[in-house]
Amino acid sequence: MEGHGVKKEEPDLWVDDPMHLKRWLTSIVAVPILAVFLYKAPASLFSAFIGLLAVISLGEYYRIVYKPIRPAVGLIIPLWGGFVGVLLLFTAYASAWHVIPELIIVNTLVTAFLSIPRFKIHTGVVDVVSKEIQGLIYIPLALATLILLRMEPNGVRWIFFLVTIVFAGDVGAFYAGRLFGRHKLSPAVSPGKTVEGAVGGLLTNVIVGYAFMRLFIPHLSVAGSLFFFIAVGVAGQVGDLFESEFKRVQQVKDSGAILPGHGGLLDRIDALLFAAPTAYLVKTYFLGGF
Predict the structure, then answer these.
(1) Are 190 and 229 found together in one domain?
(2) 214-232 pLDDT, tens per residue?
(3) Nearest of 148, 130, 142, 146 to residue 81 by alpha carbon
């Protein structure tokens, strides 16, 4: 009938994409719980929560990057990586950043030592060390900046500020891409993402971020706030694309299935892993003591 003047009916996002409905149902349940937790939890409990996120996300990361050489990797290297990741997060809580280089050096030596007996099983094990170090910097070290933000004056507000901007940008990019997307942003990395979606996400970052700033952190300058919104928004989108890179290399759709409609935990925090360090650096070096 399409060729006889009858307009083709547009697909209903809620009906034709059941994962979309699951995504919203999960968010409706999880977001209020997370908001209450962030508001009420002391710094120690917040840090423990970030540690749990890091360990789960590291597990998903290892599942992806070690997929071709899983028999050669074994369990001890990922377990060791999780242990060092928790130590990295503890350095943030204990304000002991000066020990991070030592931790990275010790981790490299131990991981290299553990990889040697596995070489006879699979020669690809030579990649284990680099991927394990990448994982530590990519996930727990990045998440440690959330703990640093939380420990500062008005830390709870800044955590809400950051999470709100990242979440709003993710939603804005999704719907702008669905409604207006025509030009591919980076088809080699993520065929579904569009330039229009990216611009819509950044606009949502600015609008929602400005509203939050005026309500809860009104002493920030408009120029400084605008720089903060855009820097965090761009970093979040880069983080999303970066995770897509190694998933595409290993031909993995989702990092896991822990969140219905969302995939794995790493799929949900990929933007935050780049946005959180960016927010901390911009706040520390450009916004001063606010």
Answers:
(1) yes
(2) 999 998 999 999 999 999 9
(3) 130
Distance CA 242, CA 193 (A): 13
Q: What's the token pair of residue 285?
A: 């070096």
Q: Which helix (H) or strand (E) holds 104?
A: helix 100-115
CB hemisphere CA count around 239 (13 angstroms): 26
- Maximum mean pLDDT: which of 3-17, 110-124, 213-227: 213-227
Task: Report the DSSP pairing between strands 190-194 and 184-186.
Answer: antiparallel
First vs last C-alpha separation in the chain: 62
Q: Which domain holds residue 186?
A: 154-290
Please provide the DSSP assignment of 133-151 as one string: HHHHIIIIIHHHHHHHHHH
Identity of the residue numbered 55: V
Contact assessment for residue 189 and residue 248, using Cβ atoms and an 8 Å cutoff: yes
Contacts of residue 20, Cβ cutoff 8 Å, sequence gap at least 6: 13, 14, 261
Flag whether 192 is in a domain: yes
Looking at residue 15, its pLDDT comes to 45
Do residues 280 and 161 both lie within one domain? yes
Where a domain ends, among 151, 175, 210?
151
Q: Looking up tokens 């983080």, which residue turns up?
A: 239
Find out whether 78 and 66 touch, Cβ atoms under 8 Å. Answer: yes
Number of domains in the chain: 2
Q: Which of 151, 176, 196 is the last residue of a domain?
A: 151
Residue 98 domain flag:
yes
C-beta of residue 258 within 8 angstroms of C-beta of residue 268: no
In a domain, 9, yes or no: no
pTM: predicted TM-score of the whole model, two decimal places = 0.88
AA identity, residue 190: S
